[in-house]
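Q: Structure tokens for this one, please.
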Amino acid sequence: MEAPHSSPAVDSTGTPVTGTPGTGTPGTGTSGTGTGTAVTVTLTVESPEQMQDLGRRLARVLAPGDLVMLTGELGAGKTTLTRGLGEGLGVRGAVTSPTFVIARVHPSLVQGPALVHVDAYRLGGGLDEMEDLDLDVSLPESVVVVEWGDGKVEELSEDRLRVLIDRATGDTDDERREVTLMGIGPRWAGLRDELA
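A: Here is the predicted structure, written as tokens:
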């Protein structure tokens, strides 16, 4: 069983990343990647309500063409975060897990981008298997959020936001989550300031 998260978070280079626990205050950290600079923001979320609120805050910085990749264990809060994104973007329809339909499109009610919510969990292949979803067609005018997308959708965009949700595992009712937002590519250079 994994212990509750009490150690300081680190970015991909091992540099400590700090935030104000329980407040959702972004931490700091910038690391290099093979595709350019990645900006990393780590914060603590104490409840599902705070996770949904983080989604609403994050929606304020999203624009048509953005690709958001969500990673985390079952029950980590990926769909809860996406529900907040949908509320913040002002889209139609209840945002629920698209596990059995693979993808759902939520049109905007406020002249903004549509939300395309994809669950790639059952898709074993890479982008080839996802071509039938036409995500490359949807991406320019939509915000595309892919749960379980690591290793499957990176080719869609050099600029992408990777969200890692880490929770305590085992027999625990701890609702605390460590959320690491990694903005990959020039599009996300101001991520830390935009979330402040």
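A few notes: The radius of gyration is 16 Å. The mean pLDDT is 78.
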